[in-house]
Structures are given as C-alpha cells and as structure tokens.
Amino acid sequence: MKWKVALLVVLAAVAGGAYGFFSPTQTGAQTGYRLDVDVTINPGGGLMSGSNGWLTCGWHLECKFPYDVSDALDWDNVDNSTVYWRSWGWRSDGCDNCQVASTTLWVSDTAACYRIQQDLVDWFGYYRGTEFYTHTTTPWNGYSNPVTAGAQRWLMSEFAIGFSITSEKTTDCGFGGSHTHQYSSGLTRIGTYPTSSSHHTGVLSYPIRSSGYWQHDVRCFWQ
Amino acid sequence: MRMRRLLYPATAVGLLIAVAVGTFIMVRELRGEDTNRVAAAQPAPLGQSQPASPTPSSVASANLPTNPDTTKPGWHMPYLEASRGKPAFDQTVNGITVGPSAEHRFSVTCEPGTAHQVPIDQVDQAAAGPLMITAKYQPAGTVRFEAVATVCQTAGNQKAVVAMDVGFTIPSDPKTGRRGGIVMVSRWLGAPSATVSIPAERWASGTVAGRQAAVARPILANGLGQSAVVVHASGVVTSVRAGWLTFDEVQRIAEGLF
C-alpha cells in the first residue's frame, strides 16, 4: 500500500514538473511556438456624458478648412481634466492577465504645441509604435506601465497619462479650447470614426472605453 | 461513517494535486520566466494623484547590469524605472539650453490666428529655406509618418514658414534583432533652446556635421529609452529626438540633415 502512495506522489511531481517545463511561456523562443498579440488603443479623452467621449473632429491633420484627412481625432475635454491611456489586449496563448507590452510616457512638445507621447514597446523590448496626445501635458515624464492582455479574450489597461491644457504655448498651435488631438506613428486605423470631410464640427458621442472602439491597432507575434 | 469514507480519498487527491502544482511552480521558478513577478516589481498603473518627487538613482546604483539578458521578458522595465528617478533640469550644453522647461521660441512673430499646419509637400522649397528637412540618411525600412510645416502671416502680411516637424519610425524585426524605434525632427528659426525631458546626467557636448551640438545618449548602448541631438546654426534650431535607437544611428540621422 505504502509503495502505491509513494508512486502516486512521484507521478504527480513528475507530471507537474513536466507541464511546468514543456508548457508554453512568454519567452516565445521555443521551436514551433508562436504567440500572437493584438493591442488596440482607444481614445484617451474625457468622459463627457456617462461613459461616452465626444468626438469633435474626424480623421484630420488640422481641424481647419480644407480639412486634410490624416491620422488624428479630436476628443473633447474640460480644462485640466485627465487624459488616459486606454487599450484592450488579446494574446493567443493561455496566459490570462499577462503583460504583452509596456508604454513609456514622454513629454514631446512641438515647437508650437504641448504634446505627450506613449511609446509602445513589446515585452521583449522591441519598439511597436507611438501614440501622441497634443494639447496635453504631464508631470509623469518617463513613467512606464505594463500593458496586459487576456488569454484569447480582450482585457483592458487604463491609466492616467496627463492633463488637458487650458491655453497653448503659442497662438500658432490651432488650439481653440480643451481637447486631445490624438494620433499615432502611422498605426492601423479603425473605420468606426468618420473622416474630417464628413465630420469636422459639432459633437459625435462614442463609448470610448469599450472594446471595439479603438483608434489605433498594434499586432505582433513572438516565436 | 459515509463522510469519512469520502474524506480520505478526497484528502489524498488534494495532496497529490498540491504536489503537482508545487512542482510546476518550482520548475517555472527555476526557469526564471514568471512574467507576473517581473511586473509586480514595477509601479502600479498611474492614478490621478501626483507622483512622488523624483529621487536620484542610476543604473549603477540600482545594481543593474549594463548588458542585460534581452531574451528575458520585461528585461527593460527596471532600467526605465531607474532612469525615471533621475533628475531632469534645464542646463546649457555647448551653448544650447536643453531641459524640460527650456523653451522653443520662434524668432518670427505671426499675426494672431494666422498660423496653421500644412503637409510639407505643399510648401515651396524656396519659402521653407533652411527649415526644409531632408533626411539624407535613414535606417533600412524607415517609414515617414508625419511631415508638417507650420506657416503663418507675419506683421508685414508676408507668408512665412515658422517650423517644420517630420516623424519617422523604424519597424522592429525580432528575427534579425533589430529593435526599431522612432525619430522626430523639428526645425525652427529661434534662439538656441529646446524642450527635451531627458535626465540631466545623460547630456554632453557633441558635434554634428561640423556644428556644435548638445547630445543626450540613451539609457543603454542598445538604444533603450530616449536620446536627442540639438544643433543651433545660423539662427536655425534642429532638434532630433529619438526613442529605442542606438546613439550611433541617431548621430548618423542627425548628420544626414545637414
């Protein structure tokens, strides 16, 4: 009887150890193993009505006639209110609520405007893209935060990154009231939001914290 | 009696599961790949409150190796955290003022409300003059994502180009080990001063295409973090801010702008 118990204990230890050794981890360095990751970046503007943010100008370079269509969306804010990083992360393996990337926050003022940027670097330190927030400033230059993902499900990461400003550095910035002019380093855009030629005045309301209402998308894989 | 008969096997199964789970955790610990533990050492996501005042620290004082194992997930986080704690303040390097509150100051005054941004392609080369940004060197695979000029009307009702901003990304490629990165180049007519928030100790004097420069190196030689090159020549400020690129690449990009 005793040797049967001992055998069962040994078998349990071997099974646990073998699973720990051979099951997928985040290194992505194992032969034949591939981990796909998707991070969608939502608007970072304030919630103006319930859980909705207000879009005040569709895809544009500058919200001014003749409205060049470009990578930015304008999100309404009240003076000095918080601007957020919001993302939804998905990963193809079984690691739930696990890190897939990090953001690092920099003050990146242009010659005329206040601006901050969030550089997205994957969990192995490879650069994956940048999200810019103009008319925004921050006391948290240099802060890094992990971005998490769900195991084949979408999981949200949200944290404060700065504040909307009340007046610009110079009159040459095309400000016109508190809002976040959010754009990226050429990341994939979603079709949910209108172009500036179809919307550049007034307000359109969107649930900007919700999955699926992203502005930019980063997809990568490790193998 | 019946409960007892059920209790013994249940306890035995529970103990076996505990042994299996314990061994699993021990093996993962030995492999050193508990990514959640890496994250636990980092600051929690930012709240709405102001962060504590930065306290000086450095890679050396944090006992971090200068050549980390970059195959470990999250290897970069302790370095970024150590860098964040270092003081950044305005200083004059090689005659150029750089720092978090050093101002970008135009030497051209625009009439209020006349300034606006246009794609660089729409700006006449002659009108842009020395502000035109042409990158003669770009790393392989470079993509331009932003190229805008700020134009306005001056007091004499003259149309003037005030500044140029061009952004490039270099895509990463883990297969080749290329880490990728971002470069933002700005040019404007103004005093030798530029807003760049990089810890003060990383700045030094440099030279770019024979011109005096203030340069800030990245946190590690592999390009981790931010770096910058600022040049002031003939009344024109050229600011090159980069992320995640080696300083050699940033220097070559800066040289190619002249």
What does this molecule look like?
The complex is a heterodimer of chains A (223) and B (258). With 223 residues, chain A is mainly beta. Chain A has one helix spanning 2-22; strands at residues 35-42, 53-60, 72-76, 82-91, 98-107, 115-122, 127-134, 136-137, 144-151, 155-164, 179-184, 188-189, 204-206, 216-222. In chain A, strand 6 (115-122) and strand 7 (127-134) form a beta hairpin. The longest helix of chain A is centred in the N-terminal third of the chain and has 21 residues, at 2-22. Chain A starts with a helix and ends with a strand. Chain B has 258 residues and is α+β, with helices and mostly antiparallel strands. In chain B, the strands form two sheets. Chain B has an eight-stranded antiparallel sheet with strand order 3-4-5-6-11-10-9-8, with helices on one face. A three-stranded mixed sheet of chain B has the order 1-2-7, with no helix packed on it. The longest helix of chain B has 30 residues, at 2-31. Chain B is elongated. Mean pLDDT of chain B is 83; it is low at 31-58. Chains A and B meet through helix 1, strand 5, strand 6, strand 7 and strand 9 of A and helix 1, helix 2, helix 3, strand 3 and strand 4 of B.
Q: How far is it from the N-terminal to the C-terminal residue of chain B, by CA?
A: 91 Å
SS field, number of helical segments of chain B:
5
Overall average residue pLDDT of chain A: 88
Number of distinct beta strands of chain A: 14
| E-strand count of chain B | 11
Multimeric organization? heterodimer
Please identify the structural class of chain A as seen in this structure: mainly beta
**Main sheet: strand order of chain B:** 3-4-5-6-11-10-9-8
Helix fraction of chain A? Answer: under 10%
Q: Describe the sheet with the most strands of chain A.
A: 14 strands, mixed
Question: Percent of residues of chain A in beta strands?
Answer: 35-45%
The low-confidence parts of chain A are 24-30
Note the main sheet of chain B. Answer: 8 strands, antiparallel
Elements of chain B, N to C (H/E): HHHEEEHEEEEEEEEH
Fraction of residues in helix of chain B: 10-25%
Portion in strands of chain B: 25-35%
H/E order of the elements of chain A? Answer: HEEEEEEEEEEEEEE
Overall spatial form of chain A: elongated
Radius of gyration based on Cα positions of chain A: 22 Å
Radius of gyration of chain B: 26 Å
Low-confidence stretches of chain B: 31-58
